[in-house]
C-alpha cells in the first residue's frame, strides 16, 4: 500500500512539475489528464463546479498525498504529548530545588512546520501545553534545532508569535557541519553545563532524542522521516 501510495505521489509530483510522464505526454482533446486521474483515485471525482479545486494538483495537494491527514497527525501528536504532560506534572516542580528544563525540537514539534507552513507557523497545541506546564512549574524551556543561525530572527519571531515561553534557542552555527544528532546532543550538554537538569526532551525525529542528556524522551511522529 505504501509503495502504491509512493507511486501515486511520484506521478502526482511529475504532473505537478509538468514533467513528461510515460503514456501521458500526449493528451487527446477531452482526455483525462494524469493529475485528474491521480486526484480522482485519491480524493474522488473533481467537481467542475467547485472553484476551490480547479486545475492541476497544487503543492499542497502533493504534500497531502505524501502525508497522513492533518487530523491524523494531530491525533498522533496528542497521544504522545498527553503522556509527556502526565510525566511533567509528576516530575515538576523539582522537589530538591534543582534548576530544571525541558528541551523542544522546533520543526514539526513546537511548530506545525509541514502541516501549517508559513512565516508564522502556529504552535502545535499539545507541545505548547508542555511548555506552559514546564514554565508554570518553574522549569525553563529551551529550543534545540538544526535550523541555521541565519534563521534566528524569523525563528524567534515565530516562536514568540506562537505563544511559547523561551529561555534559550540553540541553532546550527555558521560552518558547523556536524550531524543533527551530534549537534543537538552537544547543545543539550551545553544546557546541562549551565546547571540544568533536562527532565524531558521532545522531538519528532530519532536524531532529536538519542545521545542522552535527558531523563525522558518523547517522540512525535515523523512518518518514516517525511517530517523534518
Ligand atoms: Mg523536527
Q: In a nutshell, what does this entry contain?
A:
The chain is α/β, with parallel strands linked by helices and about 230 residues long.
Your description of this structure?
This protein folds into two domains: 2-66, no CATH class; 70-219, HAD superfamily/HAD-like (Rossmann fold, 3-Layer(aba) Sandwich). The chain is α/β, with parallel strands linked by helices and 228 residues long. Helix 8 (206-209) links the parallel strand 4 (196-203) and strand 5. The protein is globular and about 50 Å long. Residues 1-48 have low confidence and may be disordered. 43% of the residues lie in helices and 14% in strands. The chain contains eight helices and five strands, in the order H-H-H-H-E-H-E-H-E-H-E-H-E. Strands 3-2-1-4-5 form a five-stranded parallel β-sheet, sandwiched between helices. The chain has helices at 2-17, 34-43, 59-66, 70-91, 125-136, 152-162, 180-193, 206-209; strands at residues 99-104, 140-148, 168-172, 196-203, 216-219. Helix 1 (2-17) packs antiparallel against helix 3 and helix 4 (70-91) runs parallel beside helix 5 (125-136). The longest helix has 22 residues, at 70-91.
Unreliable segments of 5+ consecutive residues: 1-48
Q: How are the strands ordered across the major sheet?
A: 3-2-1-4-5
SS summary, helix count: 8
Order of helices and strands: HHHHEHEHEHEHE
Helix content: 40-55%
* CATH fold category name of the largest domain: Rossmann fold
What is the strand tally? 5
Query: Overall 3D geometry?
Result: globular
